[in-house]
Write a structure and sequence with these properties.
The chain is mainly alpha-helical and 221 residues long. It has one domain. Helix content is 67%, strand content 2%. It has 7 helices and 2 strands; from the N terminus they run H-H-H-H-H-H-H-E-E. A two-stranded antiparallel sheet has the order 1-2. Helix 4 packs antiparallel against helix 5.
């Protein structure tokens, strides 16, 4: 087997970053929900962000900051990818450091909560942009590639995130009294995060990888 080239190492590093982001995204809702039940007892909270006010606070902040660091380190095909990654990274850290408004919060808490909502919106919108626009691009044609299948998955994931974001706003502003006992924000945020995780795992070659292997390295576009 030939030794890895610098290009091979770079590809492996990018695949690692994508997979790490994907695994963190997929694992986050499950770890928060079941971890809170194990540590604090009780039932569900109103939103994923609400777990900041539980025994899972450090996990919530740590995972979001880790996602932010990975996104900041991520480099795609061009300058737009880099800018989008930087925006998503700042938004991820902002979501972690500016918590959602607690139930008994004061005016300062409400302002911080608005910042949280703003960062969360930017985070999900940027990730949807990654899925629908950036992930569907490729700078190469690989024989036997499963790019069309992956593109369908990327677009589906991005659309799911946008739909979930719209439904969260709709439930909060219009149907709050009718849906609040069903925890709509928690479920919709969880679905959006899972869609984001699946897209990044796919981009990292874990899901729908190409069968073509060159110089011992599998490349996923």
């Amino acid at each position: 087997m030939s030794p890895r080239t610098a290009s091979d190492n770079l590809v492996h590093n990018y695949l690692f970053l994508r997979r790490a982001i994907g695994f963190l995204g997929i694992g986050l809702p499950f770890v928060l929900v079941f971890g809170k039940m194990a540590l604090d007892g009780g039932g569900l909270l109103n939103s994923i962000s609400g777990y900041y006010y539980s025994g899972m606070r450090d996990v919530w902040v740590g995972v979001m900051c880790a996602i932010g660091v990975f996104l900041l380190s991520y480099r795609g095909y061009g300058r737009v990818d880099d800018i989008a990654g930087n925006i998503a990274a700042v938004a991820a850290v902002g979501v972690a450091l500016f918590p959602t408004t607690p139930s008994n919060g004061d005016r300062a808490d409400e302002i911080i909560g608005l910042l949280h909502l703003g960062f969360a919106a930017v985070f999900f919108l940027t990730l949807a942009f990654f899925c629908i626009v950036l992930f569907t691009k490729s700078d190469k044609e690989i024989p036997g590639a499963r790019k069309p299948e992956r593109n369908r998955l990327y677009v589906t994931s991005g659309v799911i995130m946008l739909v979930c974001l719209a439904l969260i706003v709709l439930c909060g502003l219009v149907f709050d009294d009718l849906t609040k006992d069903l925890y709509p924000a928690l479920w919709l945020e969880s679905v959006a995060i899972l869609a984001f995780g699946v897209a990044w795992l796919t981009k990292g070659g874990t899901l729908l990888p190409d069968k073509t292997v060159t110089a011992g390295t599998r490349v996923t576009a």
